């Protein structure tokens, strides 16, 4: 990485010239397949960003840096977790490095900053970022999501909360940004379709050192749904327990991420979360992945590492299908969308015609076992699409989930 | 009713934590006129050190309070070094000081990320303060009540130090008129190092005291710095009373603002700062800066 930056600086002038001329770029015979990663290695989002890179490298190592008979050259770029950085680094990957595929970025607002550019540059992009509309009402033909939309895990979570936990009245709390709105919107829709009622929705700012002003408002309900991300779930759960609140808590993939468990304490016991990846999925592929992550980095993988590992599997399968030739972008993109894998750490996956994943989702309950916290799967929802059980046309006809949609029924 | 009571008590606790954070910031700004933008980083550094010592490092696990004091001392030494080696070279150049302290804060953030990784770290509440107290319908964590007491104790100690000791008299003289203080034989530059180290140590101590509530994570520095700034601007620089009252006001505004007007939480938080800057530039309890 350091090396790469230094060369970058030296050739800054040349690259600028090249970029403006847009010299036609031809792959030399036997040239490496170039895989770019937009991640975040500094700032508050670094925890997930570092896991993204670890997941990618784990897969590349397993394959000895070779996909479909071609050597893979891996280029990682740190966006700093902001839209402007994402744009700059995406341009750098496309115009200077001529990457064949971009993995990442992490956050929805980063993805939104580069989506138009990616469509114009015709570079396939596989991201975890959950901005719903990029595979729904404003689809980007060069975008593929192998993880989940914001609400994809919340639909089954709401189904479970209503049918199995028999909850009737829930209060939701999540960060005041698109990912939070979309998660809670999905939860509300499915929960209310199953006879439940959302009592109130709370939206603390992303930066909230003390959640007490919100905790003080939790009353008149029999459960709480939280959609926090980054390090916020940790603080929220701790303060929730500090105030003696005992109502069951349910959440999504970022709220109960396996990688976060080692930072959590007893306050997380009993929390339910729904996630497209679970560390206790008993398959060879998952065991291999977990063992490699623990050996190389000494950490348990979570949703971010698994998401990138699976994305790499998709890229490899797509490249295989085109015979190792990614240069016809449309054909390559078509091959990527047609990928269907039976063996991944998150179970079998395929894609819908928008390029969003259809796969299994796991509802887990957090427990203490052998001195450490673990998420134990209590129910698996098979082949969940971004539209849940709703009719695709009807779903797309309603507005995207937002702060005010669906509205509260009072 | 419970709702209002809970928020009021919590405002005071949060104010207590803010006071621990901002008292040092206020002293440094008052005496040295240095807008120390590393203050949030010193808070975070104290939290990381404390969390590491409390969890046990190299086989030695420290008691929570011992860990807090040790990390405060380490951060104080670190602060003293920053003053001696860097800020000393930039007397009176506020723009350069802002840039240097901002730069150091970025460097600390990156070094912490390298050293402690991106995972948030939580610290267990000391066991005898864990749990919650019941006051009628109100349930409140005991640890937070202890933070109020601690802030009051620190405030009294600082006040005694500033008001009743020779060192305090010299610092007050330096705040009021550095040139005159020099003329009467006070080594103001030596005071600068002491005050900077003291302010840094307080920030580090506050960091560890805050961990059972806030935990520690990358970005904690940038979350806390604006709060320290707004407290000090509101209360007035160089004034202990100003920091205390400012902290309590911000604690109240923070809690009630977020609960009642969540969409405007930040607007409400920074509005009093704007008003004070426009109408009363020296702050509620600050002295006119010559």
General description of the model:
The complex is a heterodimer of chains A (410) and B (290). With 410 residues, chain A is an alpha/beta fold. In chain A, strands 7, 8, 9, 10, 11, 12, 13 and 14 form an eight-stranded mixed sheet that branches. Chain A is 37% helix and 19% strand. Chain B has a two-stranded antiparallel ribbon. In chain B, helix 1 packs antiparallel against helix 10, helix 2 packs parallel to helix 4 (94-116) and helix 2 (39-55) packs across helix 8 (188-214). With 290 residues, chain B is an all-alpha fold. Chain B has one domain (2-279): ABC transporter involved in vitamin B12 uptake, BtuC (Orthogonal Bundle), CATH 1.10.3470. Chain B contains eleven helices and two strands; from the N terminus they run ααααββααααααα. The radius of gyration of chain B is 19 Å and the shape is globular. The chains are: A alpha/beta (410), B mainly alpha (290). Chain A binds chain B through residues 41-44, 46-50, 176, 202-205, 207-210, 212-214, 216-217, 230-231, 234-235, 238-239, 242-244, 259-260, 262-265, and chain B through 2-3, 6-7, 10, 14, 109-110, 113, 117-122, 124-125, 132, 139-141, 143-144, 212-215, 217-219, 223-224, 227, 254-259, 262-263, 265-266.
């Amino acid at each position: 990485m350091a090396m790469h930056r230094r060369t970058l600086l030296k050739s800054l002038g040349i690259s600028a010239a090249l970029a403006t001329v847009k010299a036609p770029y031809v792959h030399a015979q036997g040239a490496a397949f170039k895989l770019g990663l937009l991640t975040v290695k500094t700032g508050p989002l670094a925890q997930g960003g570092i896991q993204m890179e670890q997941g990618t490298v784990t897969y590349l190592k397993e394959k000895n840096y070779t996909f479909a008979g071609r050597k893979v050259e891996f280029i990682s770029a740190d966006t700093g977790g902001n839209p402007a950085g994402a744009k700059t680094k995406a341009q750098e990957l496309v115009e200077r490095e001529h990457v064949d595929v971009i993995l990442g970025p992490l956050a929805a607002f980063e993805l939104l900053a580069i989506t138009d550019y990616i469509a114009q540059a015709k570079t396939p992009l596989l991201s975890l970022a959950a901005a719903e509309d990029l595979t729904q009402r404003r689809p980007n033909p060069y975008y593929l999501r192998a993880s989940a939309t914001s609400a994809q895990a919340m639909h089954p979570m709401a189904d479970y909360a209503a049918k199995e936990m028999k909850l009737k009245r829930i209060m939701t709390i999540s960060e005041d940004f698109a990912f939070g709105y979309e998660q809670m919107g999905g939860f509300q829709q499915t929960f209310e379709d199953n006879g439940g009622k959302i009592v109130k929705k709370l939206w603390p700012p992303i930066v909230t050192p003390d959640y007490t002003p919100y905790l003080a408002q939790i009353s008149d309900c029999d459960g709480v749904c939280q959609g926090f991300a980054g390090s916020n779930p940790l603080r929220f759960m701790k303060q929730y327990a500090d105030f003696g609140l005992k109502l069951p808590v349910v959440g999504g993939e970022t709220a109960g991420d396996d990688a976060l468990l080692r930072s959590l304490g007893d306050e997380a016991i009993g929390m339910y979360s729904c996630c497209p990846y679970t560390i206790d999925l008993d398959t060879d592929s998952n065991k291999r992945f977990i063992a490699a992550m623990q050996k190389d980095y000494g950490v348990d993988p979570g949703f971010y590492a698994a998401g990138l590992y699976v994305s790499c599997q998709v890229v490899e399968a797509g490249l295989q299908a085109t015979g190792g030739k990614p240069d016809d972008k449309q054909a390559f993109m078509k091959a990527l969308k047609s990928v269907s894998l039976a063996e991944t750490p998150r179970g079998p996956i395929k894609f819908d015609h928008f390029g969003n994943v259809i796969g299994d989702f796991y509802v887990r309950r957090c427990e203490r076992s052998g001195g450490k916290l673990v998420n134990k799967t209590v129910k698996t929802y098979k082949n969940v699409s971004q539209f849940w059980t709703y009719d695709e046309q009807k779903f797309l006809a309603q507005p995207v989930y937002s702060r005010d949609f669906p509205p509260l029924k009072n | 009713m419970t709702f209002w009571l809970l928020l009021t008590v919590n405002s005071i606790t949060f104010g207590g934590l803010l006071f621990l954070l901002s008292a040092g910031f206020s002293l440094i700004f008052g005496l040295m006129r240095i807008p120390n933008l590393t203050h949030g980083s010193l808070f975070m550094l104290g939290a990381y050190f404390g969390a590491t010592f409390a969890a046990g490092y190299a086989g030695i696990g420290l008691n929570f309070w011992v860990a807090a004091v040790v990390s405060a001392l380490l951060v104080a030494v670190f602060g003293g070094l920053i003053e001696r080696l860097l800020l000393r070279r930039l007397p009176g150049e506020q723009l350069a000081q802002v840039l240097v302290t901002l730069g150091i804060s970025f460097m600390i953030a990156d070094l912490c990320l390298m050293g402690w990784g991106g995972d948030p770290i939580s610290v267990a509440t000391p066991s005898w303060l864990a749990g919650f107290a019941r006051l009628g319908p109100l349930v409140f964590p005991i640890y937070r009540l202890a933070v109020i007491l601690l802030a009051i104790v620190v405030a009294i100690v600082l006040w005694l130090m500033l008001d009743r000791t020779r060192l305090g008299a010299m610092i007050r003289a330096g705040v009021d008129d550095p040139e005159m203080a020099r003329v009467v034989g006070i080594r103001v530059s030596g005071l600068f190092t002491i005050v900077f180290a003291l302010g840094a140590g307080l920030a580090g101590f506050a960091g560890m005291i805050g961990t059972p509530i806030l935990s520690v994570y990358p970005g904690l520095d940038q979350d806390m710095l604006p709060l320290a700034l707004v407290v000090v601007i509101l209360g007035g620089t160089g004034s202990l009373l100003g920091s205390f009252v400012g902290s309590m006001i911000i604690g109240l505004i923070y809690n009630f603002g977020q609960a009642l007007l969540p969409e405007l939480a930040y607007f409400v938080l920074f509005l009093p700062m704007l008003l004070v800057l426009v109408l009363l530039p020296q702050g509620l309890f600050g002295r006119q800066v010559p």
